[in-house]
Design a protein that fits this description.
Layout lengths: L47 H23 L6 H28 L1
Helix pairs in contact: 1-2
Length: 105
Amino acid sequence: MNPSNPINPNNSVQQNFAQHGGNVFANQGPGNQIINNTTQQAKRRTGFDTKALLVILVLDVAFFFYGMTAYTGRNTTADTWRAGIFILLLILTVSLVRRWLRRRV
């Protein structure tokens, strides 16, 4: 704080922060209006859910091709295990896609 200016400049500045999907309304009287409407969306980085979704999609594709090439056609337990693991990966992928879409809306 400047000793020659007894008014703290932080007290005379109006600060408005918009949430996702929100609005900022400001009226600071007559004269020039300086309104800074920056939301956190501009600073958003790739989140954990996006990274996890990309990793699980790559894992799904890789495991699908592995299961496809390793399929014997006989009644073996290995084919059953590979199919079961693929179904679990598919369920996990669908749940991650739903979560990812909900966070974007």
